[in-house]
Amino acid sequence: MSRRDVCAFWTCISKLMTKRQPKQRSKSSKNDNNIGEISYEDMEHMMHKIFNGTANGIGHCNARELTETTLGMAKIVNILRQQGKRRGEDSSRVILRRLLLSKDLNPNRELFKLFAGASIDMLDQFDARHLSNLAYAYALIDCVPEFDDRSDLFDHIAMRAVETKVEFNAQDMSNMVWAYATVDKPHAVLFEAMGDQVVAFEHLGDFKHPQDFSNTLWAYATANVPHPKLFEKVANYIVDSKSLDQFQPQHLSNIAWAYATAQVPNHKLFERVANHIVASDSLDRFYPQALSNIVWAYATAQVPNHKLLEKVANHIVESESLHGFIPQNLSNTLWAYATAGINHPRLFEKVAKHIVESDSLDRFKPQELSNALWAYSAAGVRHPKLFQKVANHIVDSKSLDRFDPQAFANIVWAYATADVPHPKLFEKLANHIVKTDSLERFKPQDFSNTMWAYATARVHHPKLFQKVADAAIQRKTEFSNSQHVANLLWAYAAMGIVDKQLFLSFMPTAAKLIDSYTNQGLANIAWAYAVADVDAPTLFNDHFIEKCVNKKDGFETEALSQLHQWHLWQTKEESNPALPIELQEACYNAFISEEPTVSKLQDDVVAQLSSIGLDPKEEVLMGSGYRIDAIVKVNGKTIGIEADGPSHFIGRSKSPSGSTILKRRQVSSIDGIELVSVPYLDWIKLRNDKKKKQEYLRKLLGLKSDNE
């Protein structure tokens, strides 16, 4: 066979393999007679002869023959890898697999490195088509041959393309940049040169196929190589097109995905694409991945088109099943609707039902689980069965090594936000973090969200809080977001974990960010330091007061109440800056505005106090603004009594919450009365024995025993 015949052989084989195979009557074996009357042995001998001839003669091929041979073999490898081993496949595929693939289905590295070496020796003879086809071939099989000087084939192709300033047509450029993005070789100079050529075109009529647009934009976005002029030119061309009917659903989704990923949100382009999809009679031609990518793109680009998202959601809801959606499609879709703020309960219900009814969640990656949970919580859609299934799956997992810090943070944030308690889940995640050698992979937001979640869910885990505190102190300079700082410190204060070193270490950072706090952030940071009782003159100064005054109309009741408690703490020293009178009054009024509720525990305690001859006054409003459950006079001394129920402690522990700690301290120091506690756990132990309860209270208040 001539070199040209050998080249044509591999090209023809690759084309034939894309056609549907006829069903085989029996399992392939060496006795099968698959093609005419050729036996397996004869076919194997023939193909080995052609293969060896190809390998031995590759150095004598010209540029066209070499690239077509390489591309033909690469396509065969790609087909064999995609299809895998099949029962009853014809003998030719069995033989080709042995020649071109290793046992682990990787391409024959030695063969393709041989072809790469031959290409380098004559790369100066390659024109644009040959260069792009060569790069495309190796990208198709994810193969990047390296040479002794540590360069690789893609380095040489890029240099040749740039240095010679070869003119590429639209398809060649598309294939070239697609190849580099696919093998993760973002060659900036090459991408710039390719992009400049596109921009220099008078018009984009050379892009005869929408796939060329799609692949080109996908490549720049995937490689993270910016080229604003390229994206602008392509967007203008698409916007000005008379019709988008020539664009397949996959092209539209890839284009939208590329603009969103590259952070080039061209509003006119997004509107044109959305209008085209909305006007479609049906979305049946859109595969699940295309639908998922489209809604993800619009949410990411922050150009949510309500009609588009509504149409896609309705299409998904009306589908017979979601079996065509892989986990990534599901999680990205949910994330998109939650991020865009589009409320579509039927969509969330359908996806949740599909996940809950799945036999196993093993196909879901940790990020997909965390994104899905985050979406339900962010969208305010409660689905306890879904949360229960995911939590059980995680708890039953042998290892959590596949979970990254962001996944941990998003998961616990979702359960805390949705108010779905699952102690075993929180315990398992916390234990894993504690056992981790280093928390260097955690970003400030991961620390903040994780601890906020444990505090909000009121999950007691001292070792976790200590480990995160130590890590956060070491990396305090990395915290550049005021919300992360406020939420982190609030979490420790809310849990009653007064780590003085943590609060002192973060004081300069918290002060530096003072201009960027939200109203709730200002209130949280102030309240946290009040609980911790750590003086912070560089943080709470005239500038802080000024920020509070400027934002006074934006504070909600909870934030005003927190500021009132901070003001009580701050003004313990007359020299400290104080809130203006008008704002003080607003904070005080907010603090006392909540109607008191009397618990069964409080009723019982008050009843027993009366039984031992005391005259308790209930829900007494003190000068500080705090309400005391009951106040009694004992030997002429006023004593306040708090019936401390579960909400006054962390989880089922005896550790008081930050609010409880602050109240006890401030009532004592400001109102000047002794405050004693009747913890619910102690009271429960007394059961319904009134005598024991009365004796407990006498001992607590220093009264003589009934037996004395």
Walkthrough of the structure:
With 708 residues, the protein is mostly helical. Helix content is 60%, strand content 4%. The chain contains 33 helices and 4 strands. Helix 24 packs antiparallel against helix 25. The radius of gyration is 35 Å and the shape is elongated. This is RAP domain-containing protein.
Tell me the radius of gyration. Answer: 35 Å
Number of helices: 33
End-to-end Cα distance: 117 Å
> What level of helicity do the residues show?
55-70%
Strand order of the largest sheet: 1-2-3-4
As a percent range, the share of strand residues is: under 5%
The poorly predicted ranges are 21-35
Shape: elongated
Q: Give the overall pLDDT as a whole number.
A: 93
Biggest β-sheet: count, sense, barrel?
4 strands, mixed
Return the structural class: mainly alpha
Total strands: the figure is: 4
Summarize the structure.
The protein is mainly alpha-helical and 708 residues long. It contains 33 helices and four strands. Residues 21-35 have low confidence and may be disordered.
Keywords, separated by commas or semicolons:
4-stranded mixed sheet; 4% strand; mainly alpha
List the topology elements.
Elements: H1 3-17, H2 40-57, H3 63-83, H4 91-100, H5 109-121, H6 128-140, H7 153-163, H8 170-182, H9 188-200, H10 210-223, H11 228-240, H12 249-261, H13 267-278, H14 288-300, H15 306-318, H16 327-340, H17 345-356, H18 366-378, H19 384-396, H20 405-417, H21 423-435, H22 444-456, H23 462-474, H24 482-494, H25 500-512, H26 519-532, H27 542-550, H28 557-570, H29 581-592, H30 600-611, E1 617-621, E2 627-634, E3 637-644, H31 658-671, E4 674-679, H32 680-685, H33 690-701
Parallel strand pairs: 3-4
Antiparallel strand pairs: 1-2, 2-3
